[in-house]
Amino acid sequence: xxxxxxxxxxxxxxxxxxxxxxxxxxxxxxxxxxxxxxxxxxxxxxxxxxxxxxxxxxxxxxxxxxxxxxxxxxxxxxxxxxxxxxxxxxxxxxxxxxxxxxxxxxxxxxxxxxxxxxxxxxxxxxxxxxxxxxxxxxxxxxxxxxxxxxxxxxxxxxxxxxxxxxxxxxxxxxxxxxxxxxxxxxxxxxxxxxxxxxxxxxxxxxxxxxxxxxxxxxxxxxxxxxxxxxxxxxxxxxxxxxxxxxxxxxxxxxxxxxxxxxxxxxxxxxxxxxxxxxxxxxxxxxxxxxxxxxxxxxxxxxxxxxxxxx
Length: 310
What we know:
By secondary structure, this protein is an alpha/beta fold.
């Protein structure tokens, strides 16, 4: 059977015809546009592992009801569990619209939310607020940014180990009963190391995309670097923070398109100019009285565009 490849998102090839075995679908997951192609993949799957940290029974039951065409379950899930990111609400809608055959079963392999994930995310949000509202200079702000990045990296590394362990238990049991089953797990593009973690556990997963071609913003790229045990240097922190602000300021419906566009703009600016722009933006935020934290990304973008035009 030939593998059909079509442009998805920004034109990177995605294998839309998947067969037996475990398939990982790595993509951004911020907007509904980021779920492009997911409907075709889910239509072929027999087992679906959602990226969903939870220890609650209700979302598990809701997703299994959604697969069977329960619209009330879709409404409940979208309102309570999909969060603020449109990707998850849209993914649930894709699941609802999926043909009833072949039969799809939903299984959970992500981390428990209450005992594992929620405390770490509370800490991350606290650190994120510290560096995004910092009134200190660039170097002090970058140090706060580093603390946030390192905390995320440690939690995501531990999370990936749990997911890999759970898949290593679930996949062989499923395949023993159904050797030709197609298993699908869509997950964020920063988690491509799961392929190696699974291989280390004897599970050979395939990817619908070439991992090295998937756009990843600099912040997540340096999280990935830290997850390998390497230090993130000052210039990398500066680049990553700057790129994140430019990314947040740019409009658009596709996260991956915005990643590429913001990277192109970020790469035109020298590190010295990045530091100068951030310093001016921090001082501007210190002096303004109107919700300064929410506007720093727009200030950095306007200063960058002015420098780029000069």
